[in-house]
Amino acid sequence: MEAEKDILEYVQSGQLELPPLRFTPTAESIERADIRPDVLVQTNWQGRTYAFVGEVKRYGSDKSVSEAAEQARKYAEQLQVNPLVIVPWLSNEQLLSLEQRNISGVDLCGNGIVLVPGELLVFRTGLPNKFPTSRLIRRVYEGTSSLVARVFLLRPQYNSVSEIFDEITARGGSITLPTVSKALKQLEEDVVIEKSQKSIRTLQADKLLDRLKANYEPPKPRGFVRCKLTTKNNASIGAILFEAAKQAGERIVLSGESSANFYATMAKEPIDTFYCTETTSLQLEELNVEMDVFSRFPNVELKKCDAEIVYFDMRNMNGYNVASPIQAYLELANSDKRGQEVAEQIRKKIVQDLQEKSGE
Predict the structure, then answer these.
(1) What number does CATH give the domain 4-132?
(2) Which residues make Cβ contacts (< 8 Å) with residue 154, sequence separation at least 6?
(3) Does the pLDDT at position 40 exceed 70?
(4) Domain covering 136-214 in this structure, CATH number
(5) What does the alpha-carbon distance between residue 239 and residue 226 come to, in Å, rounded to a whole number?
């Protein structure tokens, strides 16, 4: 659907349904100038007719759905009918939110909730979005675009779009200003940030983390080397690798999982996994390190990886280039049960640090 008028034509043609219910437009006119709903429809069930006032939105964002729900509720109270939200696609989270507000919602993909308190309840969910363009920007919580979402977990407030761009760049990210602007519009529609004339601030840190977690895709290495590294002095392996990468003009960082013990209580794994933009250019022999690629007890794994997200906001701690706490959280939250338990510790730290910066 290209615009709200296309959705209205779809509804007016009688195609809107949530089996076993089908909605048909009513011929009833409204004479009050202060009430201008998008559409009036009705449905029948077991000999009874139920009337609804529908509000249509082109974008199925949380903000759009919430605004449509509130408007439909106001009109429904004035007209003594039931409120209905109509958008291209409704998530399960949005449907549950509508249910809590006693408001019906039906999308064009077969998902929806139709409820008349004490009389009727139909709930269907799980069908995929047939209209991905109904979002302002796709995959805002994935890949490079996710850097915009991530900076709102590192700092609670910004004064401008360019300031957000500068923050991403300062933390090692590479992104374009137009991408930042588009991502901000979607984050605002998802009600995880709030924009005003003076500032752009984090609104729901927990929800932002949930969205990043649900949409996280692990980086795809181009290859890896597993070996046993032994230093000939007291320097840490992490410091040696950092120096080797620096001399070679490459980037290197501990993986999120291997960085976990810097942010939470977790037993250190016997193998440290590093992401590196290139591994063959690391001249370890020149740094007094013995490298055994045939060892039965390796202690290092080097993965070739170009993904921006793994290097974003990396920090030097105890001689190691450590992954951002956000990257550590996302990797662990999408791992096994033990990893998920550690992820919760890191999550609490992320939220607590953000609250302290905002003065809450």
Answers:
(1) 3.40.1350
(2) 167, 171, 313, 324, 326, 354
(3) yes
(4) 1.10.10.10
(5) 18
